[in-house]
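Morning run. Coffee first, then this:
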Amino acid sequence: MALLLLSAALLSAALRIGAAPQPMTTPGALRRIPPGDPQVVSILYRFFDWGNDWQKLNPEYGPVGAVHFHLWEDWNPTPDVYAWWVIDRQLYRERSLRVTLPDGSEIPKPVVVQIFPYISSASGWQNAVFYDATPQWVYDLIDAQNPGDPRPVVNGRKVGYKLTGCNTVAVLPMYDNPIWQEAYFDAVRALGARYNDDPQISSVVINTGLDGETQLIKDLRCNWQQLLDIQVSYDMRAHFLEYVYRTMDVYREAFPDKAIFINNAPGGSAMRLATSEYAASLEPPVGLKHSGMWVDLNSHHGYGNFVGLWDMVNTYSMTLPIWLESAYGFGSSELKYWSLIAGLHYHPDAMNLHPEYFPMIEPKVLRWVGEHLGRTLEDTPSVWTVLRDAEFPLQVWDSGAASGKMGDWTFWLYRRDLPGGQAPRVWREELPAAAQEHIYSRQTRRTDQAEGQRYMIFEIDAGYPYVGQPSVSATPDGVSYIVRVILLNHGQDTLSLQYRNDAGELVSQRIHKGPHLGPVDSWVEHQFALRDAYFANNLTAEGGDFRISCNNDGDEYVHLVQVSGVWGEPPPLPPLPDTLLAAPRMIRLIPLHGVLQAVLEVENANPGQPIAWSASADRDWISLDQTSGTIPAEVMVTYIDADLAEGLHSGTITLTSSDLPEQNVQVTVEVLVIDAGLWLPMVTGR
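And here it is:
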């Protein structure tokens, strides 16, 4: 189907076709996996992992579980005979290993088991696309009952179906055959009878189609989807859906005490919808697994009658267990980082990652991701948002549409586009050259001072237990917050975190950018401790809990904002180094307009630590109402009429500190002298 790219002018009309499911907000008492249902061990898991003791090898990763893959043919060699040693020998390598969870408890290293009947490729499998891992005895049984229609042979092996095209062949299991189905279901039942009570197996993934996903075949090197309809049967898709439903039933019966997941994405639009609804109807429900966790996708969201790749995960993220899988092992650390952020947006219970993720992602990021898996609003270590926007535009056709993920990645903290808070998206190329190679620089957002958009405004989900509570400054058993901001340390201007206290007064905590924060023209992290914040969606008349202000002295670029609430006093933060600061760094006076004075604020980057300061001006027409003292201080800068010639004049105020002899700060003062006789009001006519 041809896709029509809509212009921005048609965007709103296109959305009226129908909206993709919107994020669901969890009521405070609702847990993602209800008590009594099979639980997931909510940590990171590693592909192709057999017997690695990550707690000893790389404890900095945090807890890491294992994903074990097995082909059906490898452990079911003949009817009703199961070579359990194939599975047990890998489990045995894990038996003595332990992992320490974020809460400090230690458990056996958890394992996820997956059984594949059909995969994209196999070792030694040449001159054919895909690999049918059905045990050969299954096709022998089918042939015995249908001698006139024997199964085709490819590379010396019987396969369910053989497709030809593009100068190659593809193979497909015989999903529509009742003998094939019952043989597979018997294997699943036997698997459940042996491992349902195994405490080391954390969960089981329901593998149905190619690579375990709910899709019959992929267009790899040829148009196999179309050729399937022609060379096998158009009805094959309906048979496959019936088989998927039955497979979910059999797995649920075989593993009543395990968290199990249907691997139904990517898959097709109708398949994603049907299997998700069916998974939710079972008791206990079956979780959803998404095998396409990536930075963004061109059909991330769907509209109208098209179900996007993530719409079902979005719809059920608060009511079903969710398991996410990285889409690729290749790619840069930047792509891997952003894929993790994209996955966390959907509040997953667990993730499994390609091995390349672990050495390429900073350990502190891996631990942070792991700490946010399987969390509810009641127990999450933080709420956060990463500022960005869709990487793929809206595409529309007659009955539906698709787009990338619109808006920010969020984790119960939302940026709101309120008046004065429209924050445009910024691409890498618009950032300083020194910052462009950083993993955060893929894209971001900024304030837009020139257009009057001085703020980024944020609102915490109302179910967060610290919201609406009095602050610790008002009562000893009140709340406090740590607000963590990752910002671009560009320029020497200031920014402020602003919020309301218990009395409804606007409070502002200001910081100066510069070398004391970290590398200049790169991303740095700053944390604010809030003892007096009362978050109740009360920042402005339109709402919001707090905002970042550019202070009208230069735009701010922000990657991440994170809020952690605590009862009582906030934990101590590492102090910034004592640094002499001044704001503003440029003062302009215009006597003819009555602008004769300005306030210069002298501060220490390490707030609350007083240091001595001195100031001097290099022009007689610059007057300072005080020239020394202890920081913090406010200095009134005044223009003294010195009969200056018409034009722009410049001078400098130099600030020093005897406590910091190696530091000084220079503030530019400009005065614009205009001949009053030449300054005339505008005349608009008679």
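The first strand starts at residue 4 and ends at 5. Good start to the day.
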